[in-house]
Amino acid sequence: MPRQPTIFLSHGGGPCFWMEPPRRFGPHAYDGLRSYLSGVLASLPARPRAILAVSGHWEAALPTVSTSAAPPMLFDYYGFPEHTYRLSYPAPGDPALARQVQELLGEAGIATASDAARGFDHGVFVPMLIVDPAAQIPVVMLSLQQDLDPAQHLAIGAALAPLRDDNVLIIGSGNSFHNLTTFFDGQEAESVAFDDWLTEAATAPDAAVRNDRLTHWASAPGARACHPREEHLIPLMVTAGAAGPDPGRRVFHDAIGNKRISGYAFG
């Protein structure tokens, strides 16, 4: 079985694929992202037996793994049209994979917790409804550690790297730009500067250089203007850590509301 890559993807804004984009964005604002997400499975070397999803919408004191065999829905967005609260993503969980995740992290000296009640938050179900609309691939969720330390999340990813050889796809779901207070201002300079820096860092041919740059992401041009709080960027650290020496490449790039958005794959 070929080794799976790891992927950091942007999951859009709320239930963006099931509602009209803001008028100033134009009617096709999310078409490019939808098209990319719909082609993720076809881009893989094999259909994964399961997906480990690290969402920017779940933080816990310790890295926490969902263990339910049938995760419910968790509608963690507010103020959207009523029909967006009737979305359903009935993919199964995978308790055996959840145990494997905890074992791998434990072997690396990383303490974990488990959660049998955790549902699919929109950082998971929104992209997965496009990636695997039949909801046939089991999905296990892994939380961020709430200190959001980039080096720690690179280490978490490194501990999980063996999953790639077990036909598990590791997805980090966040956004390369996430500042809700400026998302609608139409300005692009800071997002362009940060996106250029992030792409150079994520695609650095030397993994040690890549990981050092990502560890110090906050010193990048436009960093805090694009991420006042970094929870939507930190899933990238997990995917980069799980990449090992494999190089990164940018697999998605678009401007949504004049903000530059990118996605990356490793391996």
UniProtKB/TrEMBL annotation:
Pfam families (alphabetical): LigB (PF02900)
Annotated signal peptide: none
Extradiol ring-cleavage dioxygenase class III enzyme subunit B domain mapped to chain residues: 7-254
Cofactor (UniProt): Zn(2+)
Keyword Zinc applies: yes
Family listed: Belongs to the DODA-type extradiol aromatic ring-opening dioxygenase family.
Protein name: Catalytic LigB subunit of aromatic ring-opening dioxygenase
Organism this protein belongs to: Rhodopseudomonas palustris (strain ATCC BAA-98 / CGA009)
Upper lineage: Bacteria, Pseudomonadati, Pseudomonadota, Alphaproteobacteria, Hyphomicrobiales
